Amino acid sequence: MARQKRLPQGSMGVGLRPKFYENLLQNHQFDYLEIISENFMFDQPIQNHYLSKLRMEYPIVLHGVSLNLLGSEDLDLNYLKRLKLLSDYLDTPFFSDHLCWSQRENRFHHDLLPTPFRKDLIQRTVDRAKFVQDYVGRPFAIENLSSYLTFRESDMPEWEFYSTIIEKSDCMYLLDLNNIYVSSVNHDFNPREYIDRIDFTRVSQVHLAGHDPSNPNLIVDTHDRSVSDSVWNLYGYALQKGGPFPTLIEWDENIPDLETVYMEAEKAKSLRNNIEVSK
Amino acid sequence: MTPSVFFDLESFQSLLSRLIFTPLIEKNKSLVTDVTEFQRILNQESKKNHYSLLGIETYSRNFWYKHLSNLQSSLPLFANLLGLWEFNKFAVKHFSNETSSFRDLGHIPESFFTGLKEHIDLNFKSERHLLLEQSLNLDLAWHDLFRIQSIESERLTIVPSEHTVFKLKDKFRILQDSFGLWNLRIEIKSILDHGRSPHEDLKISKKVPAKRSPTSYILMKSQGPAVDWILIDALRGDFLSQLNGNSLAQAVDNFSVKLTPDERILAEKNIHRWVRSSLEQNLWDFVV
B109 phi and psi, to 5 degrees? Predict the structure, then answer.
C-alpha cells in the first residue's frame, strides 16, 4: 500500500462546507475535516483561501465524486494530476472516491452511478484503483454507494464485489453506513450481513448521514437531515464488530449550523464510549 | 444469481446514461421525468422490465435537478431576472439536443449561451432585452475573471489565460458601450432589494456613473451587503482600465497589486453571499 498514514482511531470529523468556514477557524470541536476534492481542484478562489488557513489547524482528507473508477472510459490523467497536487498540498492522510461511474461520452451525470456486481469487472477495477493509488502516492479509500437500481447482470452480492476489490487492490474502505442502510431497504438485504464481511483493519473512516424515507418503496440518500435511528443502530453494530474508527458526519443539503452537526458527532462519540466500556 | 457469459460495460453505461438524460416534460406546470420515454427506450433496446422504472426515474430526476441547479448558480443574475421557470424550460429544451453536459461553468458548451442570446432576442424588446442581455454578460464576465485558479505552494494565484482575458475585455466593452455598468447595477439591485418580479416591466435610469476609486468602495464594505454590487463594479471597472494600453501579463499584475488578498477575498465572499441569498429567495420551480 502507498505511504501508510491514518487518522487517529475514534476521531470525529465533519464535511467542510462554506457555511462552516469561519466557525471552524474559531472553534476546534472536530478532530479532522473532509473536503470534496473537486471543490478545491479547479477555479475556486474563496474556497482555496479558507483551505490555506484550515489546513494549518486540522488534518484534512479528500473525498472525490468524479474519479469515474467504474467508468468504461480511460481515467482522466488531468484530473489525477490535480488530485495529486491537492493531496500533496494538504499532506492528506488518505484520499477517497466512490465505487461507481459518473460520466460517459462527455456527459457528467452529477451523480454516483452503480454497475452490476460481476466477477469479470473486478480485475479491471482493481487495476484502476491500484493505478490511482500509485499515481497519487497516498492510501486510496473507496466508498460503497447507496443505489436505486439492481441489475440482472450481477453475479455476486455487493459486499463481495466491494471487499474483493479492496483486498486485491490493497486499498482501504470508506464505509458509508447510511449508504448500506439505504441500499438494504431498496434492495432488500440484511445490512448487518454486509458489515459482517468487512475487514475493519482496512477501514479508513466511516460516514454517517441522513436520508429521506418518505417513499417506503425507494428511500433516497439525501444528506439533508439528522442520522436516522436505523443508521445509528447500524453504527453501534459496526463499532462492536470493528470499532473504534474515524467517523465523519456528512450534510450537503439544508445544512444546519455547525453546532447541530457537532451534536451528531457527540452522539457518535457517546455510542463509541458506551460500546468500549461494554467490550 | 446466475453469471452471464459476457458483459459489455460500455453498452450498459451508454444505455443507462441515455435513460438518465431523457429530457423532462412539462406537466401541470411542473417539469417531470418522462416515464413513457424510459419505457420506449427500454423496449427499443429489448430490455423491457429489465430495470426498475422507479430507480431510473430517481437517477434522472437527480440528474436534472443538479444540472439545472448548476446552471442557475452559474448564471445567477440572468437566471433570476429571466425567471427560474423560463430559464429551466429553456435549459431542458436546449440540453435535449445537446450531447454533452458539463462539470462547471468553464465546461458549459458555448451553444448554450448562444441559444440564450437568441432566446432573449426573440422574446424580449427594448429595455428588458437590454437588461437580460447585460445580466448574461455580467454573469459570464464574473466567472471569466476568476476562472483559472491554481495553488502554488501556499500562495493563491489567479492566472487568466489570454483567451479568457480577451473574452472578458470584449464583454466589458459591450457593457460599457451600450449602457454603463453603474446604472445597470443600481437597477438590478433595486429589483432584488424590493422583491419585484423579474417579469415586471423595468425602468432603467440614465444616470451618469459616479467616479470613485476602488479604495473608497472597499471602505464602504462596513455598510453591509448594500455595497456588494458597487464593490464588484469597482473590481471589474478597475480590471478593465488596467487592460488599456498594457500587455495582458502586466495588466494582471497591476490588477493584483490594486487589491490586497483580503480585499479580493472580501469581494468574492460578498458576491457569493449575495448570490446565495438571492437564489434562496427564489424557490426552485422544478417540482416533481
Answer: -60, 140
Nearest CB partner across the interface for A155, out of B2, B21, B56: B2
The verdict on a CB contact (< 8 Å) between B151 and A116 is: no
pLDDT tens-digit series, residues A150-208 = 999 999 999 999 999 999 999 999 999 999 999 999 999 999 999 999 999 999 999 99
From A190, A189, A185, A175, select the one nearest A242 (Cα to Cα). Answer: A175
- Digit-coded pLDDT (tens) for B112-140: 888 998 999 999 887 677 777 767 776 66
Dihedrals phi, psi of B126, to nearest 5 degrees: 45, -125
The three cell numbers of residue B187 are 437597477
Which SS3 state, helix, strand or coil, does residue B285 take? coil
Q: What is the pLDDT, as a whole number, of residue B74? A: 73
List of residues 6+ apart from B43 with CB closer than 8 A: none
Which among A100, A28, A30 is positioned nearest to A61, based on CA atoms? A30
Residue that is written with C-alpha cell 466500556 in the block: A277
Residues in chain A: 279
Residues in chain B: 288
Q: Which residues face A98 on adjacent strands?
A: A143
Q: What is d(CA A175, CA A205) in angstroms, rounded to the nearest whole number?
A: 6
Distances (CA, A) of B219 to A241, A275, B69, B235, B266: 58, 55, 34, 13, 11
Handedness of CA B212, B216, B218, B220 (dihedral sign): negative
Mutate to test the interface with B, among A99, A100, A109, A112 (most CBs of B within 10 A): A109
CB contact under 8 A, A111 and B272: no
Whether the predicted pLDDT of A258 surpasses 60: yes
Instruction: Tell me the whole-structure pTM to 2 decimals.
Output: 0.77
What's the ipTM? 0.91
Print burial letters for A217-249: b (CB count within 10 Å at least 16), e (below 16): ebbbbbbbebbbebbbebbbbbbeebbbbbbbb
B25 strand-pairing partners: B32
Integer Cα distance of A44 and A62 in angstroms? 16
